[in-house]
Design a protein that fits this description.
The complex is a heterodimer.
Chain A (H helix, E strand, L loop, with lengths): L1 E4 L3 H9 L3 E3 L5 H6 L6 E4 L9 E2 L2 E3 L4 H7 L2 H9 L3 H6 L2 H7 L7 H6 L3 E6 L2 E6 H4 E3 L2 E2 L6 E6 L7 E7 L10 E7 L5 E6 L6 E2 L1 H8 L9 H11 L10 H24 L1
Parallel strand pairs in A: 1-3, 2-3
Antiparallel strand pairs in A: 4-5, 5-10, 6-7, 6-10, 8-9, 11-12, 12-13, 13-14
Helix pairs in contact in A: 3-4, 9-10, 10-11
Chain B lengths: L11 H6 L14 E7 L5 E7 L1 H4 L4 E5 L10 E2 L6 E2 L5 E2 L5 E7 L2 H8 L3 E6 L6 H5 L30 E9 L2 H6 L3 E9 L11 E7 L2 E6 L4 H12 L6 E4 L16 H11 L3 E4 L2 H5 L3 E2 L1 E10 L5 E13 L5 H11 L9 E9 L5 E2 L6 H19 L3 H8 L18 H12 L9 E12 L5 E8 L4 E5 L8 H13 L6 E5 L16 H28 L7 E3 L2 E3 L5 E3 H9 L5 E8 L11 E13 L6 E11 L6 H20 L5 E2 L2 E2 L18 E7 L21 H13 L10 H8 L6
Parallel strand pairs in B: 1-14, 12-13, 15-19, 17-18, 22-23, 29-32
Antiparallel strand pairs in B: 1-7, 2-6, 2-8, 3-7, 4-5, 9-18, 10-16, 11-12, 11-14, 16-17, 20-28, 21-22, 21-27, 24-25, 25-26, 28-29, 30-31
The chains are: A alpha+beta, B alpha+beta.
The complex binds flavin-adenine dinucleotide.
Flavin-adenine dinucleotide binds next to strand 2, helix 2, helix 5, helix 6 and strand 10 of chain A.
Chain lengths: 267, 751
């Protein structure tokens, strides 16, 4: 097995060009290794300083959940706090979450909610893909194997109100049954994004349209909003939950988060 | 006096600093590391095992299969010796050990294990007991296994030509006619989930085979029971097998009886070198789990709420091999109906072989499964009868000194008083709040197992003492508590005592460390050993002080024969032997005789309650308040009683709300700690009251009796009934995770 500990971006990209698999915190990758998926060429990214930087709206792929907990935008920080355990958050990175592209990745609904872009770098240069161009299926992305995820780029202005919540079977170290982010800007523009209820993170435009017209946290139209969210998701039944529960839970969570945003807006 | 105080655990410092040495830390020079090739089929004939590629891996020295065990007895099992060390011609569950790879290091062993090629021919698979009991079901076992331990006489052995591994039945009176005359008959069916008794240290063992002697260090809760299995495998006398259990990183019953020790032992026997087998959690889950249960109950009551009859039918999924399933079944049969006066009873059950991981003991031994059915049924009856649920229990609980099972020990507890502690603690009977519910339940377990314990106390020439016992320290604190008992008996301070445990060659015989028996039975053995040592010391003191034995007694670490005639223990030992040498050994024996003639040695009481809130939109359940009662007769170490009760109840909450092993087809989908969800800190109730009831009514030292399992048993039923009271719907299966509760509130067929 080839194993390179890259110390800068150049080295990492060279290794990738030779077919190496990137290893960030290893909290997803090593689970696979333990299960017998043995890569024969790996490049470790922890020492690549460029990946751990944050400038303005650009979050380096190597920034850990632990850092995001304290410094990330509100709803992403909320999500960070629910990822695994302290040990996992010290090792696991946002880039790894994006790289794995699990339907249950807790960082992904936020990226969808704010229309984040994924910055990909290879020896041929840099390209940026919108989240919905990047995530293509269950654990499938548009990344070429010679490309490194170098950063997640958030829009210059983030919505003033953002809320994240997830439902799981216990209160920590739990894979989400449903995860949801709702954001709301001062002009009433609302976004609703969900995880664990479709192959990729998903937005619900119909519900967003309706939400734009709402301002009262007690509005009767919230029933319709909840219904639109439930109707808009595409969940499956597996050993963690059922399609019906996920669909219902998506609606309930989105409604609660929207209500929170509206309350804050009113206050 | 040392007893009665919350003496800090003697292991606390080394465990906190990481210095504590567990079996996993053991190393023997020259040892090989083993990895296990596990079956990738749930039920299949093994056509061929090809180790050639694995053997080319650098560092690999052997690949062992059942074919290499010629000359050995190739199976183990303390009740039914049906469990092959390595699969013989056939695999019966996904994950069953098929071959053992030995290598210089564990990585080479793991890599090589992947390269062993096994060809299978699939056989029909049965995962659920319903399938295994069907007429066309494949037979999992057609061999005739000789019975192991005959003291498990309450269970009948396998019914030939079926997948019923064991049956058990308890009955008296005339259930049918009593039910015919009943004012109300209430029927309930419940399902208890398939569980894994998570312990931080997974199974591991290291074995050496030298000069015809087998030496094993392992995670065995019951080293003496493992010794029996190993002696039979290798046709060795009992003195030719040494099994040692250092500190265990948790047991909870999952480490009772033989697990990976035979694998390490055959590795050592074949290679001539010490062999270490250390499983990860996934391997441990594929070694032993706890029984899932389907239980049907119907109970009849008269118009005042007095029970006239109860009838139970129990089906346990016992998995591919018997292990301790026999006992789990008989205990379930004895524990399901609760500590009530029941004039007519029939409780019958069967443990069914299936193509799943073998199941065995887990804290509570069949009680949690049975109690869920029995106590939810009582709560439903209360509702039907229009009688308060606590009052219904008060009317039916057995009183102190009364017998609720003919021929068994009379009740050695005041259950009504315990119940008051729970219902008062919970504020039961107050005004209901929307989406909130209170639930509580009772259980009494025939605990303590068969009473055989022995202990030695060695009093040295410097006045310090060593307590020797075959009872294992696995975090429950026996090392501390047994030291407290010895300190009090010997009249010396606890820091002059050390307790050494669980080495079959050097510590005296102990049947098991389970069934909540240690404080009571091992404690009695230690107490008797101390008294024996002191009696000898008195004789020696008489000689040293030149008095008649009748004039001499011991007091506070001294031998005393009147106001001016006194010598410390060390002075007596030194004077008697001459010089600074010698020691006095006391022996303590506990067997089924005298006050322990009647079984069980004690009733272990479970009395718990919860206050929960249900989010009707998401089904998320929050436990706000937990109340436990540790009815232990006398709390030798109150903090440890509370710790045991909290731990037991927390495991109960896991089963009630989040834990379940899930088979999707022939394979477990969640054999890991992320997806098998034990409670974490954030899941604990905000308010916890751990009460202790001390009425000196146990047979153990100072009136003590066992605890540690009781507070698990009624938790499932208490949570289910609390959720029923919060939502108006009766759950019938655990775990009640958010999806399950939501489905309870929105049943698919009502959509
Ligand atoms: C016990 C446990 C609990 C967990 N709990 C949660 C949870 O609650 N919520 C959650 O969302 N996740 C959870 N996870 C999953 C995991 O921790 C997260 O997905 C984490 O963000 C992964 O980051 P990492 O740095 O460890 O990724 P790694 O494991 O290093 O990599 C993951 C994948 O991304 C690729 N990759 C990594 N970095 C790059 C890069 N810069 N460019 C291109 N590809 C890259 C890797 O090749 C690999 O395929 C848990 C994992 C464990 C083991």
């Amino acid at each position: 097995m080839d194993f390179v500990v890259a110390t800068d971006l150049e080295e990492a990209l060279d290794a990738l060009g030779r077919g190496a698999l990137p290893l960030a915190g290893g909290t997803d990758l090593m689970v696979g290794v333990n299960a017998g998926q043995r890569p024969d060429n790996v490049v470790a990214l922890r020492r690549v300083r460029e990946l751990r930087q944050r400038n303005g709206q650009r979050i380096g792929a190597g920034v850990t959940w632990r850092v995001i907990e304290d410094e990330g935008p509100r709803a992403l920080a909320q999500a960070a706090r629910t990822v695994g355990s302290p040990q996992i958050r010290n090792a696991g990175t946002l880039g790894g979450n994006v790289g794995t592209a699990s339907p249950a990745g807790d960082g992904l609904p936020f990226l969808a909610a704010v229309d984040a872009e994924i910055e990909l770098t290879s020896r041929e240069g840099v390209r940026t893909l919108r989240w919905d161009e990047f995530f293509t299926g269950v654990k499938e992305t548009a990344r070429r194997t010679d490309e490194l995820i170098t950063a997640v780029v958030l829009p210059a202005a983030l919505p003033g109100r953002q809320e994240f919540a997830k439902i799981g079977v216990r209160n920590a170290m739990v894979i989400a049954t449903v995860a949801c982010v709702v954001t709301r800007a001062d002009d009433g523009t609302t976004t609703v994004a969900l995880g664990s209820v479709a192959p990729t993170p998903i937005r619900i435009p119909e519900a967003e349209e309706l939400a734009k017209t709402l301002s009262d946290p007690g509005s009767a139209a919230l029933d319709e909003f909840q219904h639109l969210v439930a109707a808009g998701v595409r969940p499956i039944t597996d050993h963690r939950s059922t399609e019906e529960y996920r669909r219902h839970g998506a609606g309930v969570l989105a409604r609660r988060l929207l209500t929170r945003c509206l309350r804050e807006g009113a206050a | 006096m040392s007893v009665g105080n919350s003496v800090p655990s003697v292991d606390a410092r080394v465990k906190t600093t990481g210095e504590a040495r567990y079996a996993l830390d053991a190393a023997v020079p020259g040892m090989l590391f083993a990895d296990i090739v596990r079956s990738t089929r749930a039920h299949a004939t093994i056509l061929d095992i090809d180790p050639s590629e694995a053997l080319t891996t650098p560092g690999v020295s052997a690949v062992i299969t059942a074919a290499d065990l010629d000359g050995l007895f190739p199976r183990f099992g303390h009740i039914i010796a049906d469990h092959p060390i390595l699969a013989i011609d056939r695999v019966r569950y996904y994950g069953e050990p098929v071959a053992l790879v030995l290598a210089d290091n564990r990585y080479a062993a793991a890599d090589a294990a992947d390269l062993v090629r096994v060809r299978y021919a699939d056989l029909p698979v049965v995962i659920e007991p319903e399938e295994a009991l069907a007429a066309e079901a494949p037979l999992l076992h057609d061999e005739d296994y000789s019975l192991g331990d005959r003291s498990f006489s309450e269970a009948q052995s396998a019914r030939p030509a079926t997948n019923v591994a064991h049956e058990a039945m308890l009955q008296w009176g005339d259930v049918e006619s009593a039910l015919e005359g009943a004012h109300v008959v209430v029927e309930t069916t419940t399902r208890y989930p398939m569980l894994y008794a998570y312990a931080m240290e997974p199974y591991n063992a290291i074995a050496s085979y030298d000069e015809g002697e087998l030496d094993v260090i392992s995670t065995a809760q019951h080293p003496f029971q493992v010794r029996e299995d190993l002696a039979r495998i290798f046709s060795l006398p009992l003195n030719g097998v040494r099994v040692r259990s250092p500190l265990l990183g948790g047991g909870y019953g999952s480490k009772s009886y033989t697990k990976v020790e035979p694998l390490a032992a055959v590795g050592a026997w074949i290679s001539g070198r010490p062999v270490k087998v250390a499983l990860d959690v996934e391997g441990a889950i594929h070694t032993t789990r706890a029984d899932s249960a389907l239980i049907w109950v119907r109970s009849g009551f008269d118009d005042k709420g007095t029970i006239v009859a109860r009838e139970f039918d129990i089906t346990l999924n016992t998995g591919a091999y018997a292990d301790n399933g026999t006992l789990v079944l008989t205990k379930c049969v004895h524990r399901c109906f609760g500590p009530y006066n029941i004039p007519n009873l029939r409780a019958s059950g069967r443990a069914v072989y299936t193509n799943t991981v073998p199941s065995s003991s887990y804290r509570g031994f069949g009680a949690p499964q049975g109690n869920l059915a029995g106590e939810v049924n009582m709560d439903q009856a209360a509702e039907r009868l229009g009688i308060d649920a606590a009052e219904l229990r008060r009317r039916n609980l057995v009183g102190p000194g009364e017998r609720h099972i003919p021929g068994k020990r009379a009740m050695d507890a005041d259950l009504r008083a315990d119940l008051e502690m729970v219902v008062k603690g919970l504020g039961w009977g107050g005004r209901p709040t929307a989406n909130h519910g209170i639930g509580f339940g009772c259980s009494a377990s025939d605990a303590g197992a068969f009473p055989v314990s022995t202990a030695q106390v060695r009093l040295f020439a410097d006045g310090s003492a060593l307590v020797l016992t075959g009872s294992t320290e696995m975090g429950q604190g026996s090392r501390t508590v047994l030291g407290q008992i010895a300190a009090t008996e010997l009249g010396i301070s606890v820091d002059r005592i050390r307790v050494k445990q669980s080495d079959t060659s050097l510590t005296p015989y102990e049947r098991t460390t389970g069934a909540s028996r240690t404080t009571t039975l091992t404690g009695l053995a230690v107490q008797r050993a101390c008294r024996d040592a002191l009696a000898k010391l008195v004789e020696m003191g008489a000689e040293v002080l030149d008095r008649d034995v009748e004039e001499v007694k011991t007091a506070e670490g001294d031998v005393v024969a009147g106001p001016d005639s006194r010598a410390s223990y060390e002075e007596v030992v030194q004077a008697w032997f001459g010089g600074r040498q010698g020691e006095v050994t006391g022996v303590g024996i506990v067997r089924r005789a005298g006050e322990l003639a009647e079984l069980p040695p004690f009733w272990e009481i479970g009395m718990v309650g919860v206050d929960v809130e249900v989010d009707p939109q998401t089904g998320v359940v929050t436990v706000h308040h937990l109340v436990t009662v540790g009815d232990v007769g006398y709390a030798i170490n109150p903090a440890m009683v509370e710790g045991q009760d909290l731990g037991a109840a927390t495991q109960g909450l896991g089963a009630a709300l989040s834990e379940e092993l899930i088979y999707d087809g022939p394979q477990l989908v969640n054999p890991n700690m992320v997806e098998y969800r034990v409670p974490r800190m954030g899941d604990m109730p905000a308010r916890i009251d751990t009460f202790i009831a001390e009425r000196g009514d146990g047979v153990g030292p100072f009136g003590a009796k066992g605890g540690g399992e009781g507070s698990l048993n009624p938790v499932g039923g208490a949570v289910a009934s609390a959720i029923a009271r919060a939502t108006g719907r009766w759950p019938t299966r655990l775990p009640l995770n958010s999806s399950a509760v939501w489905e309870l509130l929105n049943p698919p067929d009502e959509a």
